[in-house]
Amino acid sequence: MTELAALTWTQVRTVTDRRTVLAVPVGATEQHGPHLPLSTDTDLAVALCERLAAARAQVLVAPAIAYGSSGEHEGFPGTLSIGQHATELLLVELARSATGTFEHILFVSAHGGNAGPVHRAVRTLRSEDRDVHVFTPHWSGDPHAGRPETAMQLALHPQTVRLERAVAGTVRPLSDLMPALRSGGVRAVSESGVLGDPTGATAAEGAALLDDLTAALIGEVDQWCPGR
């Protein structure tokens, strides 16, 4: 059993020791175009944590954090954002609580808008001598709701993908879009909410990308916690 929430407290006491890593999926509830669910980032974070736990002993997967800093997507119905400050504080307090049981805390953060809060939280926690690490999946190509994320969601949860509704959004480089994104959010650069072109994405592409991201995660954890 690798899911923390499925255990009793006595089971947790039995299965944990100083080698145990608590993997915390950090996602978001935000728009991913007209074809992907609001849970896309959370789904990816959970999948990577589960794959890590399947590959390594002494990894428990915490319940996912499904809310984050998604203010740039607030022009779209369904997006729920708690902002940067609340996201940072949530992660700090969660890890402080968790280190009463777990010596090693891993945040797997799959939403780009959480990068600032997550890294600030990790810096605070490390200053308190807590062993905390963050992994953020990276890929080349479309940054949001485009081909990579669509392909991965097809591989993970194909029933949630409305591929017939997929439309191309803006395909301009993210660096060109940043001034408008900062001032007006995603709505200012893409009516559909898509940054890229998801049309033509396949589950096979998604499976290959998930394998690459899983390998990167395992490799990073091996460096951080060798022998665990």
Order of helices and strands: HEHEHEHEHHH
**Number of DSSP helical runs:** 7
Percent in strands: 5-15%
Q: Identify the CATH homologous superfamily.
A: Creatininase
Secondary-structure-based class equals alpha/beta
Tell me about the largest β-sheet. Answer: 4 strands, parallel
End-to-end distance: 17 Å
Sequence of strands across the biggest β-sheet: 2-1-3-4
Total DSSP E strands: 4
The coarse silhouette is globular
Low-confidence stretches: none
Radius of gyration: 18 Å
Total number of distinct structural domains: 1
Describe this structure in a few short sentences.
This protein is an alpha/beta fold and 228 residues long. Helices cover 42% and strands 9% of the residues.
Structure write-up:
With 228 residues, the protein is α/β, with parallel strands linked by helices. The protein has one domain (4-223): Creatininase (Rossmann fold). Helices cover 42% and strands 9% of the residues. Strands 2-1-3-4 form a four-stranded parallel β-sheet, with helices on both faces. The model has no long low-confidence stretch (mean pLDDT 96).
Topology of helices and strands:
Blueprint: H1 9-15, E1 21-26, H2 40-55, E2 59-61, H3 83-98, E3 104-109, H4 115-127, E4 131-135, H5 147-156, H6 174-184, H7 203-224
Parallel strand pairs: 1-2, 1-3, 3-4
Helix pairs in contact: 2-5, 2-7, 3-4, 5-7
